[in-house]
Amino acid sequence: PVSQRQLRVGEVIKQALSNIFIKGEAKVPNLETSLITVTEVRMSPDLKTAKAYVLPLGGTQSEEKIKILKDFSFLIRKALSKKVDLKFLPKVYFVKDESFDYAEKIEKLIKQANK
Predict the structure, then answer these.
(1) C-alpha neighbours within 13 Å on the C-beta side of residue 12
(2) Counting Cβ atoms within 10 Å, is residue 10 exposed (0-12), middle (13-18) or buried (19+)?
(3) What mean pLDDT value characterizes the chain?
């Protein structure tokens, strides 16, 4: 089970990452960070790692954009250190958010069943 503390810290990290991406505070080369959406952040029980679910606007070239985020996560972490005040700054892992694709698939199945 996920603790309230994990949820709170995850939400703080999500808000901070969103602000960093919108304002372009992490100078990630070859990537327009204002087009990245952070949908969710899940924290590990010890709060030392964060899994950030992200989705590029439009969903185009998402694999290569997420690879760029992974490669330059140290820049994002540096910008994050200035935004949040935690005892340990979590290591951030970026993952493509598949929930929208899954929801669309289920919606299509429901529409087919109703016909």
Answers:
(1) 17
(2) buried
(3) 88
Highest average pLDDT, of 15-24, 57-66, 99-108, comes from 15-24
Which tokens in the block code for residue 19? Answer: 């602000």
Q: Contact, 99 vs 39, CB < 8 A?
A: yes
Mean pLDDT score, 59-86: 87
Where do we find the tokens 């327009």? 32
Q: Who has greater pLDDT, 58 or 91?
A: 91
Sign of CA dihedral 60, 63, 68, 72: positive
Tokens of 114: 């109703």
How far apart, in whole angstroms, are the C-alpha atoms of residue 55 and residue 62? Answer: 7
Q: Which of 53, 57, 40, 54 is nearest to 6 (CA)?
A: 40
- 3-class DSSP assignment, residue 43: strand
Residue 98: its H or E element: none
